Amino acid sequence: MAADPALAGRRRLLVDLLGYGFSDRPEDFGYRVEDHADTLTALIDGLALPRIDLLGHSMGGAIAIVVAARNPGRVGRLVLSEPNLDAGGGFFSQPIAAQGEADYVATGHAEMVRQAVAGGNDVWAASLRLSSPLAVHRGSVSLVRGGDPSWRRLLETLTIPRTLIVGARSQPDPETDRLQACGVAVRVVAGAGHSMACENPAGYAAAIRAALP
Questions:
Q1: Which of 23, 48, 104, 117 has its CA 20 to 30 Å from the CA of residue 76?
Q2: In the sheet where 75-81 sits, what is the strand order?
Q3: What is the CATH number of the domain that holds 138?
Q4: How far is residue 32's CA from residue 87's CA, in Å, rounded to a whole number?
Q5: Is the peptide bond before 161 cis (omega within 30 degrees of 0)?
Q6: Residue 131: DSSP 8-state
């Protein structure tokens, strides 16, 4: 595959948040959106990155917003794909947060995996299997509680270039129009919903590439 000359010299980092993927799973970590934002800011500092672009999906979008708000002048562009913006959580986080932490860790996580497999949602099942039950529960509680100020408010007040990527199956959504009115560019991935990276990876990659020229 030929290298893209526009990306020459750019350093690209794919981060597994603590508790997810191949990252460590400390039991004394809070796993709130703000905790993850602190960790990513420490990573940016540790790598001595003077300026970065951020891409975040779902909960990662809320985390990216907080990182951008806390690091004025260091984040050049912010790209968000169907991020959590308001308190209340979403389809995945609400039923998790509704359970007690100990109960979810003991039995609830395994049951969520079972339900995901039975419902044919292999992507969600695989994601859960690669995640710490403690991290999933505490992260879900954080999404339901929301931020103060809200992640939406932080996004609206940022002055850097901002792009929202949404799946066509998630539209129409009046909140998308509201963000456009605040100067947020919107790109739609055809044939996809929230899990656009799996449902239309080429379309998702094209949307990211357009947002990060």
A1: 23
A2: 52-57, 75-81, 162-167, 185-189
A3: 3.40.50.1820
A4: 13
A5: no
A6: B
Residue 24, SS3 per DSSP: coil
Structural domain range at position 165: 18-211
Tokens of residue 183, six digits: 């100067």
Looking at the structure of the chain, the number of domains it has is 1
| Length, in residues, of the chain | 213
How confident is the model over 22-51, as pLDDT tens digits?
Answer: 999 999 999 999 999 999 999 999 999 999
**Strand-pair category, 75-81 with 52-57:** parallel
| 109-161 per-position pLDDT tens digit | 999 999 999 999 999 999 999 999 999 999 999 999 999 999 999 999 999 99
Rounded CA separation 166/176 (Å) = 9
